[in-house]
Amino acid sequence: MATLSTNIQYLKGVGEKRARLYARLGITTIGDLLDHYPRDYIDFSHPSSITGAPYDRPCAVRAKVAAKAPEQRIRKGLSLFKILVTDGQSDLLVTFFNTKYTAAALKEEETYLFYGRVSGRIGRREMSSPLVFADDPTLSFFPVYPLTEGLSSKMIAANVRQALALTEGLDRDLLPAAIQKANGLCSRREALESIHFPSDEEALARARRRLMFEELFDLNLALGRVKRSSQKEAAAPMNPASMDNFFSLFPFELTKAQQRAIDDCLADLCRTVPMNRLLQGDVGSGKTMVAAACAYFAAQNGYQTAMMAPTEILAAQHYQTWSKLFAGTGITVGLLTGSMGAAAKRAVKEQLRNGQLSIAVGTHALLQESVSFSRLGLVITDEQHRFGVSQRMALTQKARYPHVLVMSATPIPRTLAFIIYGDLDLSILDEMPKGRRPVKTYLIDPPKRERAYGFIRKHLDAGEQAYIVCPLVEQGENSPEGLESAVEEAEHLAQKAFSGYAVGMLHGRMKAAEKEQIMADFQSGKLQLLVSTTVIEVGVDVPNATVMLIQNAERFGLSQLHQLRGRVGRGAAESFCILVSTQTDSPRLRAICKTNDGFQVAEEDLKLRGPGDFFGLRQHGLPVIKTAGLLEDMALVDKTRAAALQVLKTDPDLLLPEHAGLRERTSQMLETAGA
Ligand code: ADP
Ligand code: MG
Prior knowledge:
Helix content: 25-40%
Number of helices: 22
Largest sheet: 8 strands, mixed
Radius of gyration: 28 Å
Bound molecules: adenosine-5'-diphosphate, magnesium ion
């Protein structure tokens, strides 16, 4: 008899080959398959007419096969099958490539549901390679699964149907009954059936709510267990110290939000439990200054600070900024990155060990075992979303319970932040430094690029600087067609559109020393235009840069575009971001032109991309929240948290027999998260 842990090959139609494909999706058992939720659904409940079909997204059309043309051999290995279908009002030409079987299966005069993107003008509408379904009036939503090449949603759906039938009555419904009842949740069984094959929107919503509740409940329970085991820790409490000297180190006034965040942090640093604070602020809101204030305060108290950044470029930049900022204060700053020479590394490590350095700025290199501190009191991670839970923990192991400040521009809702970072406090920089103007963002198609170059030249002539971002480092044999690469683009632009201007190039494959030199030259203004890959995505701060042009913008995620765009608009001058793409009607790209607000961008991203690993949970080593609608239903996060705490209150170590399943599952989660 099949159980949830039965190998997937037990299912009909799943042989060794398909099992291998499933393994690529992380599915090896029947239970795994049931937990593989659709990422979307094809809505057959409202099929579109052929004339009314939208152009910008796929849709379902109910139509009858009117005529079939004979197979057309275009060349060896490429055959076309053309089929004319009609919905009684107008015709649609459906084309299949190389799928003899699908085309042959369609019978003339029979009605089917065709799902695909419609193109062509009215009267000559076309659809290529649609999915075809028998016209089943009970079919209202068909699941679309995250796929890998060789597997189709139809295959998965068939396997899931069988898996559901085989496992009837075998579900591990670990969520305590009282909690289910109190929160009006449906059973796990019902949820599983409806998440794969919802009968209507309501059933789908109910299923999502139940599954999401369970995922969040588990997460909260797991993190609640960690918290319990770490609560007794004592920290390096600090004493109030004057910050006046610090505030005289830079020419501008802090924003109110920065001031508030600094007050929050310094108060934490003076307590006897370690600070655990998330500083969240959109790109350009001035998080680094808050970090600097904390490092200064720690140094006044005789404690060292370690600040970890996700890229070498960013680490080097922070090192330079802070070396300059703290020059003459007696606070010493050192840099530690993987690409430094062995002798230089050894010297820095020695100075950290003997306490000569007050601040260590670095990359993952700071995590090495050979790195130790004489009196580490504060650990800061910049752009925290780039790091995993285990990495953050590794750094905090360098001292007995240091204070921790994590900084991120990724706008995660407060409640979700709790989940990812544990029980932390939150400071938000919801205010930009004075005089900032929102970046104006435009979307243009490639033919208008020359004009955009002219626009950039004007700004360079005015003494400002610019970035051009390309999706590729270099054209190679396997690079997709039509993508710009930094290497070719830099050469080309330096000779043509920007001849006579100082053009530099930056990408991840360059040697660290080269990268640093280029960044330094751009920072100092020696270079006017920087042609780059996304290595500049996070953190880079050159306030004199006012224009950014992004080639093949459709290749980037929305949040990534927002981060990139954050490289300009960092000074008082008006700044511009020009997105170049053939997809000028893309809703994603249009959305980002409309707003400068990172939270809105993230929300839009979530709406358009669907769920999945939106918040980078996987990067944090935590299970990915698979169900959608997270932003809409943040109240659920609070409810699950309360429910988890309630369970832990009565049974802190989950030792009761009815909690055995929960204990096992949460232990597993913590193990994978490296806790
Ligand atoms: P992010 O939050 O993206 O890390 P940064 O800390 O890099 O932002 O700050 C962006 C820029 O704004 C830097 O050039 C920084 O010196 C400057 N800056 C920070 N705070 C202020 C302020 N209060 N007034 C004016 N400029 C500021
Ligand atoms: Mg930053």
